[in-house]
Amino acid sequence: MRLRLLLAPLLLASGIVLGACGSAPSCVSGATVQAQWNATPAYGTWKATPGECVTTTGLNVPHPMTIDGGSFIDPSMPDGHYLHPIIEVNRTGSVTLENLDIGGTNTTGAYSIPSVNEAGVWLASTWDVTITHVTITDTWGDGIQTFSDPPNWPVANTNVAIADVTIDTTGRQGITVGQVNGGTIANVSIHGQYFDAFDFESDLPGLGSGNVSIKGCTLGVHDFWLAIEEPLSGPVSVADCTGGGGRIDVNNPGKQPITLTNDSMVGVRMGTRPDITVEGTADLTITGCTLTRTPVSAAYANEFAPTAPPITPGGATLVNDTGFGWPLPKGTP
Q1: pLDDT band at residue 28 using 50, 70 and 90 as cut-offs
Q2: CA-to-CA distance for 102 and 120, rounded, in angstroms?
Q3: pTM of the shown model
Q4: In whole angstroms, what is the distance from residue 187 CA to residue 174 CA?
């Protein structure tokens, strides 16, 4: 576990000096903004004053509305207590978050278990939510996290659209697609997350995601790429994404189709783990993709861990390695 001591004043990626934010005329408290959001009529718009920053330890979008503009800064540091999401949308829908800067204090991307719930944006059992032109930096949890709200509301998020979003430096995942039934992720840049760029994992038996497309993402060269750790409820596609390293893990997602199309990944071997691991029942199609391997001594020559078919390579191109064909025995030199 890596922790970081607070250095003050702290200059965030948004250009705001946290130590001075509270005294600046354009800065307001989270309590003030929460009251303004609560008073905004349903389906109305709250628009930030140009240059306005908000210091907060957690805001909740109360009903259908648009949040337009503003910098939202959580000054919390991990000290063993629970950290809240910076902006949470819970059991409501028809919400748009646009033109926002969201940031925490985790400038090194450290992993602190008590603090991993400090997502930049947390969606819980929502519908018709759009997140666009948003920058999220330095959170102790995920950039964006999507779950249901059990036990009283175990309903997946539906019709989620994430576009033109930049996520830079997080203490856990870039985007957790925990429980989404119907979603699009487009033109997203993710760098410096502690674990995976995209994590399909709910930690709840039988509650996964499906009908999700990811298109046009840019990932850091040495970041992990994709993890699917729960049975899927529908297809998942990833297309036209570039960069990224580490690995792809597909772990017993069931028989829902998973497609990788025209993606370009840099594989950074972790010990003796293959770059792409498929376990259990899976239907994975890889078409027109490029995997560039970085030289690592004693690395496997095969790209897949042993698994049962079907795996359909379909026109993949490999650089500095063997092809995307049926896997060689595990441990083949």
Answers
A1: very high
A2: 6
A3: 0.84
A4: 14
